[in-house]
Amino acid sequence: MTDISLLGWVRALDADLPPGTRPGRVARVDRGRLTVLTGDGELRAHPAAALLEGSGPAVGDWVALRGELAVAVLPRRTAFTRVVAGRTSAEQVVAANLDLVLVVDALTTAPRLRRVERYLAVAWGSGATPVVVLTKADLCDDVPGALLAVAEDAVGVDVVAVSSVTGEGLDAVRALLGPGRTAAMVGPSGVGKSSLANALAGTVVAATHGIREADGRGRHTTTARELHLLPGGGLLVDTPGMRELGLVDDAGVDTAYADVTELAARCRFRDCAHRTEPGCAVAAAIDDGRLDPARYTAWRKLQAEAHRQALRSDARARAAEHARVRALHRSYRSQPNRGRTTLHP
Ligand SMILES: Nc1nc2c(ncn2[C@@H]2O[C@H](COP(=O)(O)OP(=O)(O)OP(=O)(O)O)[C@@H](O)[C@H]2O)c(=O)[nH]1
Ligand SMILES: [Zn+2]
């Protein structure tokens, strides 16, 4: 028996469960089948047909189980989404109900602040709280300096340095996670996400580059699950889809750049372009060194990207709506006696 609260607790869980069902948390989705963690172990389940109309259950979702059938997906607290390519494609939920997003970068170079900011914007957009994890601390001569540089840029975000080799900092990450809390990692390839997952799990749950190179046999096939229960509490979602995420909308940009947004709100003109306008609070902050111009430029770029993305999803939503109506017409035409009266009441 697992205490169900160790699988991550959704406060409204009981209220949301249909009668006669029990809760389970989706650890893995493959070819439509679910691996679900429940109070009495792991089981394989099928999603009910009705659940597949949307994007279907995602890793981290709570589902209501009736036997081996998942009959409902419980309301999500947070969701990491990405846009799926295709004609009428919508957003796909990559991981649900995350509490934390570990924004991972390596200390092998000076902190790449612009990149961290971008990931922070994506993370804030999901509804989860980001934490910056700087890996490979054992390879860095000035860990305090790097921590300070990131902390000064990412105000209000916890920043920790870790080494999967020496174990330094792992306890700090565990403490942030805590029992029943769910985290996922985002960050570019090679920064040490798999190594961190393995170090936190205390066993090989993800293939690292090192291992792959050493035996050359694709140990990545040993990755059994995507939602890992960590010893000492905490859950770690490690899905390939989590790792490289684009910006879906601007929900997180304003939070990641709260300082810049705040300045912009103080410009004399509402539609200030922050170029040559009199009374521009942004320009003033850049002039007297309170705002790094590179940070400002990065904000502009991300805003523009989020805007383009929003236009694209509008277009996608329209296309999906048109396809839905066309399908409706087709199905009415195939029922000659009913279609006409329903379409033209
Ligand atoms: N010295 C040192 N090397 C590390 C550390 N963490 C990871 N590495 C090495 O960095 C390389 C990449 O690590 P991975 O864990 O595979 O990186 P990843 O972020 O999972 O990469 P992808 O799977 O491509 O996303 C491997 O050779 C690791 O052995 C660390 O803390 N210290
Ligand atoms: Zn301005």
TrEMBL record:
Pfam families: RsgA_GTPase
EC annotation from Swiss-Prot or TrEMBL: 3.6.1.-
GO biological process, one term: ribosomal small subunit biogenesis
Alphabetical list of CDD domains matching this protein: YjeQ_EngC (cd01854)
Boundaries of every EngC GTPase domain copy: 96-243
Keyword tags: Cytoplasm, GTP-binding, Hydrolase, Metal-binding, Nucleotide-binding, Ribosome biogenesis, RNA-binding, rRNA-binding, Zinc
Entry note: cofactor: Binds 1 zinc ion per subunit.
UniProt-annotated location(s): Cytoplasm
Domain CP-type G: 90-245
Cellular component terms (Gene Ontology): cytoplasm
List of residues binding GTP: T135, K136, A137, D138, G187, P188, S189, G190, V191, G192, K193, S194, S195
An example Gene Ontology molecular-function term: GTPase activity
Biased composition (Polar residues): 333-345
Needed co-factor(s): Zn(2+)
The keyword DNA repair belongs to this UniProt entry's keyword annotation: no
Top-level taxon in the UniProt lineage: Bacteria
Binding site for Zn(2+): C267, C272, H274, C280
Region (Disordered): 324-345
Family to which the UniProt record says this protein belongs: Belongs to the TRAFAC class YlqF/YawG GTPase family. RsgA subfamily.
Subunit structure: Monomer. Associates with 30S ribosomal subunit, binds 16S rRNA.
Function field: One of several proteins that assist in the late maturation steps of the functional core of the 30S ribosomal subunit. Helps release RbfA from mature subunits. May play a role in the assembly of ribosomal proteins into the subunit. Circularly permuted GTPase that catalyzes slow GTP hydrolysis, GTPase activity is stimulated by the 30S ribosomal subunit.
Protein name per Swiss-Prot or TrEMBL: Small ribosomal subunit biogenesis GTPase RsgA
Originating organism: Geodermatophilus siccatus
